[in-house]
Write a structure and sequence with these properties.
Elements: E1 2-8, E2 13-19, E3 24-32, E4 40-45, E5 51-54, H1 60-71, E6 85-92, E7 103-104, H2 107-116, H3 124-137, E8 143-147, H4 157-160, H5 166-172, H6 181-195, E9 203-209, E10 213-219, E11 222-226, H7 248-257, H8 261-270, H9 273-278, H10 284-292, H11 296-320, E12 325-329, H12 330-335, H13 337-344, H14 356-359, E13 366-367, E14 376-379, H15 384-396
Helix pairs in contact: 1-3, 10-11, 11-13
Bound molecules: adenosine-5'-diphosphate.
Length: about 400
């Protein structure tokens, strides 16, 4: 069984073809600048030379056609014909309250996804475009939707409500949803495997620290709290997003700088976080480098970031009434030795003791805490695509 995994953004499309008999990656790639001049596909079949296909792609359908041609290409393709694709798994950002798990996409599901677009106007419309385009090109192939929000639908109401007038929840579903669910679920499962214990018996905090970042409390295999909320703006400070702040700042800031709500919203999403504080970059590699060279604001941005992650770990340990493991994943979590060390510093009282030697590692699935650390600190490279392929297989396989 071969599953094509699709992750469609507004002007890009990432894909992977996975053989689900053995979970082997057959091919992967990205189509970029869809709908913009200069569009291209970078394609790589495992074990073959990379290919770059430069062709105009006016929309997602055009891009998917080129991706499929690349997949069956005589020289750099991975399969003989499109009929080898058994199913397509689509990453969908927002499933609202309707979806607490992955679903086979049908007419009703698409109608609900259209409704959810209001909750994620930047993400859901391109996800849907990808679904419609695949349906046209692969009409008899089943499609599955895997939602970033679904894993967090197990949060208790006390975790997901905002302390706003209750009718806002009833009328408009203003509540916390959480994101990165596919990643949090995958790394928690991997961590349990590494520990040789059932996920259902563990209290885990998973830290997905990439450009976007969120922390999740997973008790007995279920998400019970997570740092992102109604949108992916809440929670940790991120590369360019501000994370938690006093909502009263918004009106004050608008008045002082004569800004519109859209301008403030844009600044909170694109000019804040680590970029905003450091003034250097949203990329942690640049900020770490600047801090090492003595840039105080860069160091402040890092200290701020580490402190916020630490705060969530403590809060979630308290919420779950204990802690067995802390898991780090995504760009920074997998690669930054200093970030893991600083976040775990002074948490010995909770039972967290990082081993500096074991922690001197990047991108490998491994335990990085000391033997006597009662809480295990674990590094797990995330693999959202494989998780999407597994969910797809489970539904249509
Ligand atoms: P996303 O998928 O959310 O775009 P990633 O999970 O790829 O993001 O994470 C990207 C972030 O990871 C970048 O901001 C970068 O700063 C950080 N990162 C990647 N490699 C390293 C590294 N070696 N050291 C520190 N940070 C890193």
């Amino acid at each position: 069984m071969k599953v094509l995994v699709m992750n469609c953004g507004s002007s890009s499309l990432k894909y992977q073809l996975i053989n689900m008999e053995n979970e082997e990656l057959l091919a992967k790639g990205i189509a970029e600048r869809i709908g913009i001049e200069g569009s291209f596909v970078k394609h790589e079949t495992t074990g073959k030379e990379k290919a770059v296909i430069e062709e105009p792609m006016t929309d997602h359908k055009a891009a998917i056609k080129i991706v499929l041609e690349a997949l069956i290409h005589a020289e750099y393709g991975a399969i003989q014909s499109m009929s080898e694709i058994t199913a397509v798994g689509h990453r969908v950002v927002h499933g609202g309250e309707k979806f607490s798990g992955s679903v086979v996409i049908d007419k009703e599901v698409k109608a609900v996804l259209e409704e959810c677009s209001e909750l994620a106007p930047l993400h859901n419309p391109p996800n849907l475009m990808g679904i419609y385009a695949c349906e046209e090109i692969l009409p008899n192939v089943p499609m599955v939707g895997v939602f970033d929000t679904a894993f967090h639908q197990t949060m208790p109401k006390a975790s997901y409500m905002y302390a706003l007038p209750y009718d806002l929840y009833e009328k408009y579903k203003i509540r916390r949803y959480g994101f990165h669910g596919t990643s949090h679920k995958y790394v928690a499962m991997k961590a349990a495997e590494l520990l040789g214990q059932p996920l259902e018996s563990l209290k885990i905090v998973t830290c997905h620290l990439g450009n976007g970042a969120s922390v999740t409390a997973i008790k007995n295999g279920k998400s019970v709290d997570t740092s992102m909320g109604f949108t992916p703006l809440e929670g940790l400070a991120m590369g360019t997003r501000c994370g938690d702040l006093d909502p009263a700042i918004i009106e004050f800031w608008m008045k002082k700088e004569n800004l519109t709500i859209a301008e403030v919203n844009n600044a909170m999403n694109k000019k804040s976080g680590v970029l905003g504080i450091s003034g250097v970059s949203s990329d942690f590699r640049d900020v770490e480098e600047a801090a090492n060279a003595g840039n105080e604001r860069a160091q402040l941005a890092l200290d701020f970031y580490y402190q916020r992650v630490k705060k969530y770990i403590g809060a979630y340990a308290a919420e779950m009434g204990g802690l067995d493991a802390v898991v780090f994943t995504a760009g920074l979590g997998e690669n930054s030795i200093v970030a893991r060390k600083e976040i775990c510093k002074d948490l010995e009282f909770l039972g967290i003791k990082i081993d500096d030697e074991k922690n001197s590692i990047r991108g490998k699935e491994t335990v990085v805490s000391t033997e006597d650390s009662t809480v295990k600190v674990i590094l797990v490279p995330t693999n959202e695509e494989l998780m999407i392929a597994r969910e797809t297989k489970a539904l249509v396989g």
